[in-house]
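We were asked to recover a plausible sequence for a given structure. The inputs and outputs are reproduced exactly as logged, with field labels preserved.

PROBLEM: sequence recovery
POSITIONS: 177
GIVEN STRUCTURE:
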C-alpha cells in the first residue's frame, strides 16, 4: 500500500499491511525460549528448536552390521522432529570391544528421509581388548546426505567387527535447519 496525504487509513488496511507483516517477522515466529529461525523457502521463515535424547546406561551388541543394542534390547537414543533439507547432528558414545575388534556407533535417519548409518560417520574404538573410548562427532546433513523436509527420525545404531561391543553414555542432539 502506498500512503497518500489526506486519505483514510482503515482498520482493514492496518491489519493487512502492518499487523500481518509484523506477524511474519522472526520475533513473531518463535513461540518458546531457545528456538531459532531458519529460511524454509524464498521469503519464508520458520521457527526450529534443538531436540536431544540420551541413554546413560550400558548396552551391548555382537552385530557386525549397524543395529539396535542387544542387551538390554534398546533402541537409540532416538529423536523425532520436523526438519528442512539440512540438520546438524551431534552424537557421543563410550565404545568398548571385548576383543581386538572395533566397536562403532553412528546415526541413521528414517521417516521422510532414509539414510543408513555408516562407518565414515561413526565414533569408534579399535584394536585393544577392553579398551574404551569416549568420543563424539558432528554430521552436517547436506548435499549427498540431504534430508527430505518433513518429520525425520534420528536413531543411534551400533556394530562391531568382532567380539562384543559395549556402549555407554550415549547422547544425541539434532539441530534442524
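RECOVERED SEQUENCE:
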Amino acid at each position: 500500500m502506498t500512503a497518500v496525504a489526506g486519505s483514510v487509513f482503515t482498520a482493514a488496511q492496518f491489519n493487512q499491511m502492518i499487523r500481518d507483516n509484523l506477524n511474519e517477522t522472526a520475533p513473531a515466529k518463535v513461540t518458546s525460549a531457545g528456538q531459532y529461525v531458519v529460511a524454509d523457502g524464498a521469503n519464508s521463515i520458520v521457527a526450529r528448536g534443538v531436540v536431544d535424547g540420551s541413554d546413560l546406561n550400558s548396552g551391548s551388541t555382537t552385530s557386525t552390521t549397524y543395529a539396535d543394542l542387544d542387551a538390554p534390547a534398546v533402541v537409540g537414543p532416538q529423536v523425532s522432529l520436523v526438519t528442512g533439507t539440512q540438520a546438524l547432528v551431534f552424537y557421543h558414545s563410550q565404545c568398548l570391544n571385548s576383543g581386538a575388534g572395533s566397536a562403532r556407533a553412528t546415526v541413521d535417519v528414517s521417516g521422510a528421509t532414509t539414510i543408513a548409518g555408516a562407518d565414515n560417520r561413526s565414533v569408534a574404538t579399535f584394536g585393544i581388548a577392553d579398551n574404551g573410548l569416549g568420543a563424539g562427532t558432528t554430521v552436517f546433513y547436506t548435499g549427498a546426505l540431504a534430508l527430505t523436509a518433513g518429520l525425520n527420525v534420528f536413531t543411534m545404531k551400533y556394530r562391531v567387527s568382532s567380539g562384543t561391543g559395549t556402549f555407554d553414555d550415549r547422547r544425541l542432539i539434532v539441530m534442524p535447519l
